[in-house]
Design brief:
Blueprint (H helix, E strand, L loop, with lengths): L17 H15 L6 H12 L5 H16 L7 H16 L4
Helix pairs in contact: 1-2, 1-3, 2-4, 3-4
């Protein structure tokens, strides 16, 4: 019988390499740009959490992807999504890697 869980049940923790975390981030950002999905908030939160550990070149790729999406005339999604993306972009630019 399958064990049922609810939102109060802690999720298991999985450890992955920083390289794999970066690949997840790039994929999540690329997928969710302009999609009008709940994933936007999660992707932005994860970038905030992991970006300080990334190499400068990796951060630059995230910046480039977000900037180029808007510069190409594509929508960032809802007005809330756009705020999330532009806020993240500003944060990435003003908080270089340690």
């Amino acid at each position: 019988m399958e064990k049922k869980t609810d939102e109060n049940t802690p999720s298991p923790t999985v450890t992955i390499s920083l390289k794999d975390a970066y690949l997840f981030l790039v994929s999540a950002v690329s997928y969710s740009l302009g999609r009008r999905t709940y994933l936007v908030r999660w992707a932005c939160d994860q970038v905030h959490a992991i970006a300080p550990k990334l190499e400068p070149a990796q951060r630059e790729i995230l910046i480039r992807d977000i900037e180029e999406h808007g510069e190409s005339g594509l929508s960032y999604g809802t007005s809330g999504d756009k705020r999330e993306w532009l806020s993240l972009l500003e944060w990435l630019k003003s908080n270089p890697a340690a």
